[in-house]
Amino acid sequence: MTGAKDHHERSSTLAEDWTRFTPQQRLARYLGLLAAALAIGWSITSIDVIWAWVWDAPQQMGDLLGRMVPPDPTNLATILKVLWETVNIATIATAFAVLVSLPVAYLAAQNTTPNRVTLWIGRFILVSSRSINTIIWALLFVAIFGPGIVAGIVAIMLRSIGFVGKLLGEAIEEIDRRPVEALEATGASRMKVIAYAIVPQVMPTFWAVAILRWDINLRESTVLGLVGAGGIGIILQGAIDTFNWPEAAMVLLCILGLVVLGEIVAAWLRKRIL
Amino acid sequence: MSDKSYPDHWQKPPFIANPLLRWGVWLGVAAYVVTTIYALPIDWERVSQGLTRASRIFGGAFPPSFARSGLLIDGFLESLKIAILATFGGVLLSIPIAFMAARNIAPKPIFLLGRAIIILARSFHPVIVAIIFVKAVGFGPLAGVLTLIVYSIGFVAKMLAERIEEIDFGQVEAMRAAGAPYLSMLFYAIFPQILPRQIGLSIYQLDSNLRASAMIGIVGAGGIGATLANAFGRYDYDFALAITIVIVGAILVSEAISGRIRKML
Amino acid sequence: MLQITDLVKRYGAGEPVLKNLDLKIEGESIVSIIGSSGAGKSTLLRCINKLVEPTSGSIVLNGTELTALKGHALREARRKIGMVFQGFNLVDRLTVMENVQSGRLGYISSWAAIMRRYPKDDIRHAYELMERVGIAHYANKRADELSGGERQRVGVVRALMQRPEILLADEPTASLDPKTSEQIMQLLRDLSKELKLPVLINIHNVAEAREYTDRIVGMRYGRIIFDGLPGELVPEAMEEIYAGVPSQDRQQGTAPSAALKAAT
After folding, report:
1. Chains near C, with 3+ CB pairs < 8 A?
2. Which residue windows are transmembrane per the record (chain A) (predicted)?
3. Which of B10, B39, B251, C125 has the fewest Cβ atoms surrounding its Cβ within 10 A?
4. Does residue A44 lie within any of the structural domains?
């Protein structure tokens, strides 16, 4: 999602004048192309696949999809109930993550962090949280807390702290310094300067990031069950393991509905709050 | 200044002006929090053992063991190959799909089909896609490549379609006026405008795919994720930690490289 | 009384921005500091409430030595010094009342501040001041909905809420159109008289300085080279303060205020 934003900014610098290249740039382009071709060639020739299966894959997929039709709604009531549980996992985890990420963002922002040590602590928390995927976190917490939604909530939470904390920290670094200066000049304590000059400026980002992450977490929480960390994934896994493809298809349809609905709700919230 | 009496009471105007709605929202939130927390199927007894288990896991994980580094490197290289091939395939497939999903180029029914493909590819988490491909084509990197192709289409085709929708149609008009056939119009008027974007997107997607390939391995789609899941399943926590360190390191390096390249472009 | 003695401010190893500067402000006069950009006006003002740390010298406000203060004692001293800024420095997303009350933050508990439960006296005082400057009906508006002149009034009220012993104003009119700028200067002069408050204003606009202030201090290269009544600011003195500065940057103007005042 942040990548999407990057792209917008960059596309303007990439500019339209693509044809006007100096010979040097032209050389760089050919080298880039060559490197890409080599990388692809190396991957194709050395990857460990049985090529007969590759040619067979479309037919296999077709078979599988054929077995999914028509979706079987017999267990729809259970599916919807667990789907609601999945929404709750995402919501609770997002709420906790957002709360925890506030102090982390405060530490990780250059202009608010008390000193260099705290800055690095903040950054370390952000990096380790962000670089480890939700599903890997889930794997760990299933081992710790046992299978169930606690592992799922904690996993989503830990992954979200890095995401929310990073964006929030950047927002803090970009605030307008002048109100801060003004409130310092009135003799207000650090705490009150934060509450009156920094918090109001960061609030819009805070809500936008919280909503964005909730939307992402909705998707993430649908797969937690595949490693035993609760939610709709457990039913999906069960259906797949028993080759009950019509039910699996039903679950997939429900997930699709949930994700689309989640996006609509997120868009609506964004419009209402911001 | 004057003896006039001034109000001594002030309250911040509430965010939701209508009091009924305001209290309704508060009540709703409170009810939601209470019921969900109450209804969550949590096995507290099992959870309470978490601390001892955590200490056992972390005790077993330190120091990380790089003894089986051969396995580790193989897994990592496989992830890299999966990411490269999936990026190549995904970006290639994204181009026609993006043209289908661009409102200003495609006829309505094709536009809807293109958008549907994109929505479908975006809505399902790669892990779900992976588990289906694993069932269809078997365990291993093939399932991984197919999964990440779908994943790439969801992002690249969407961004590209948006770019096509905002291109400058002056050039297209000019070509059309010159009586150029449809295909050469595509090549000479539209491709040049979207090409730089496409390169940036591909590099970004390669980075994303490398991240994702570490995770889909956990459900059997090959790569370092599979190595990690195996180590975890066999309680080799020290090896698992070593793998995790490598994954984190690789992600950081890949993020830095992709950022550097995209800045150069 | 504000007494500045031998004040030096140096950033890094470079030439000092303020060089052995002495200045004394007595009573409730309104004093303006003029000089071209880079003369050190803004640094001087910010040294007084220690937004900028002075390198050496002494600043005494009503018997308190300010330069050595730190932490809690510094915050307590700052409460007695009001400041008005060129860019208003309001918190855009808060209401006018919250902005005004933020001048009292030093006096109330954190809990009261966060919950917006301001003391009755403060609210009364805020309404009184806001009515005095003509913005009372905006109490519940967000600060970014106001015009520049209105925003600066909020800034002035915020500073006055501190019940300051001195008011510092750093280019308070530089972001405003000429008419609004005159109104703000007039307001500052009137408030100074009504509240018996000494006011120290950095100002670019020499015409406004002549018109609205009792005393003019001219700075150049970190030194005070003129200090006298507006009438004493003769062309030679002006030349000395602004020598080499293109005349359109001096903003001398020929009192456009006369016409404006007739209109208002």
Report:
1. A, B
2. 30-54, 89-109, 135-158, 193-212, 224-243, 249-269
3. B39
4. no
Name the pLDDT band for C249 (thresholds 50, 70, 90): low
A186 to C162: CB separation less than 8 angstroms, yes or no? yes
Contact B65, B238 (CB under 8 A): yes
pLDDT score at C262: 40
Phi, psi of C85 (to 5 degrees): -115, 160
A274 and chain C in contact, CB less than 8 A = no
Helix (H/G/I), strand (E/B), else coil: B4: coil
Nearest beta carbon to residue B1 from set C98, C126, C132: C132
A131: in domain:
yes
Asked if the structure places residue A157 within a domain, the reply is yes
Q: Does B12 contact C97 at a Cβ distance shorter than 8 Å? A: yes
Across chain C, mean pLDDT equals 87
Evaluate whether residue B11 is within a structural domain.
no
CA dihedral C157, C161, C164, C167 (to 10 degrees): -10
Please check whether residue A150 is in contact with residue A93, taking contact to mean a CB–CB distance below 8 angstroms: no
Are the Cβ atoms of A135 and B127 closer than 8 angstroms?
yes
Task: Kindly state the average pLDDT of the residues C129-155.
Answer: 91
Model confidence at B219, in pLDDT bands (50, 70, 90)?
A: confident
Q: Using an 8 Å CB-CB cutoff, list chain A residues near B140.
A: 48-49
Closest residue in A to C77 (Cα) is A187
The dihedral built from the CA positions of residue C27, C28, C34 and C40, taken in this order, carries a sign that is positive
Nearest residue of chain B to residue C141 (CA atoms)? B13
Sequence-distant (6+) residues with CB within 8 A of C144 are C90, C92, C93
> Interface pTM (ipTM) of the complex?
0.85
Give the residue on A whose Cα is nearest the Cα of C83. Answer: A185
Which sign, positive or negative, has the C-alpha torsion A24, A30, A32, A34?
Answer: negative
Q: Residue C252 to residues A28, C16, C204: CA-CA distances in angstroms?
A: 58, 28, 9
Which residue ranges in chain A fall short of pLDDT 70?
1-21
SS (H, E, C) C187-241: HHHHHHHHCCCCEEEECCCHHHHHHHCCEEEEEECCEEEEEECHHHCCHHHHHHH
d(CA A204, CA C70): 34
The whole-angstrom distance between A185's CA and the closest CA on chain B is 24
Look up the CATH number of the domain holding residue B149.
Answer: 1.10.3720.10
Please state, in angstroms and rounded to a whole number, the distance separating the CA atoms of residues C253 and C256. Answer: 7
Q: Among candidates A114, A115, A106, which has minimal Cα distance to A198? A: A106
CATH number at A88 reads 1.10.3720.10
Per CB-CB distance under 8 Å, the chain C contacts of B11 are 116
CA triple C233-C235-C240, angle to 5 deg: 85
Structural domain count, chain A: 1
Q: Tell me the residue range of the domain where B216 lies.
A: 69-264
pLDDT, mean over chain B? 83
Asked whether residue A16 is domain-assigned, the answer is no
C35 sits in the region (left: phi over 0; alpha: psi -120 to 50; else beta) called: left
Full set of structural domains in chain C with CATH: 2-263 (3.40.50.300)
- Total number of domains in chain B: 1
Please check whether residue B29 lies inside any domain of the structure. no
In a domain, B30, yes or no: no
B179: which DSSP letter? T
Residue contact A196–C90, C-beta within 8 A: no
Check: CB of residue A14 under 8 Å from CB of residue B169.
no
CB-based contacts of B142, cutoff 8 Å, min separation 6:
A49, A50, A53, A54, A57, B133, B222
Domain of residue A269, residue span: 77-273
Residue A256's nearest CA partner among B102, B118, B211 is: B118
Strand runs labelled E in C56-213 = 56-61, 64-65, 81-84, 166-170, 199-202
Let me know if residue B139 belongs to a domain.
yes
Taking the Cβ of residue C112 and every Cβ of chain A, the question of whether any pair is shorter than 8 Å is answered with no
**Contact between chains at C124 and B10 (C-beta distance less than 8 A):** no
